[in-house]
Every structure is written in structure tokens, then in C-alpha cells.
């Protein structure tokens, strides 16, 4: 087992209000669309209760094939339109791949849009590749979120 620890911080301006960004996160069907990093990946949220003390389960993998990775999420502190903090475990069968403490911090920009600061503190049990997967996945997901929100604004 190759353990690797890292903190990834991403800042993303989003063309929507914090309320609209929060709604895009808490709507499971919307999040399934924007959080998949590319067209070959599928994310399916099976159960979701985005609130302080809530939890979530999901599956992900290659679109059109069995989704064999499981995501188990525990929400620790959620403040509507402002903050979502959770831990996420990523499993492949009985093997834990990563565990992370993730925070979505939403702040209102002077023009009414949102600045999202994402902090992802990762422990990977599969080496640096697990951290790179988080970094690449969230970078692409936030780009997708910005595009989706931009389409609604126009």
C-alpha cells in the first residue's frame, strides 16, 4: 500500500449567485451531470441528504459499464448558500482508495456572482494517482459547473 497525503485548493469564479451554486450542488441529478469530469465517466447519486449530519452514497465508473467504485459521504457542516463540508470515502469493492475532507466555501463577489473556494485534504492509499484523480476530477467538474451555470444565466 502506497499512502500519499496532499491538500488541493481550487478557486473558481462562477457566473451565478451563491444560492444558485448551492442549489446546483444539492440537486443530485444536476450534480451527476456537472461532477462527471468527462463523457466517458458516469456518476450516480443513490441517496443524498445534504445537511449538517446528513449522508450520501453513490457509484461511479465508466459510462455504460458496471459502476464499481462506491462513494460514501458524511456531511459535517452545511450552511445554506455558503458552506458544504464533508468527508468522502472512495471504495473499489472492499478496498478503500481514498478518504478526503472536502469544503466548498461560497462567497458572493461584488457583481453578485460566486467565488467558490474548494479545499480537498486527501489521503490516498493508492499513491499519488489517487490525489491526481481528485485534482483532475474537481478541476474538470468545476469547469462543467461554470458552463452549466453560464448557460442558465444567458
UniProtKB/TrEMBL annotation:
Q: Which InterPro entries match?
A: ASHA1/2-like_C, START-like_dom_sf
- Residue ranges of every copy of the Activator of Hsp90 ATPase homologue 1/2-like C-terminal domain listed in the record: 16-149
Under the heading Pfam families, the entry gives: AHSA1 (PF08327)
Q: Which family does it belong to?
A: Belongs to the AHA1 family.
Descriptive protein name: Uncharacterized protein YndB with AHSA1/START domain
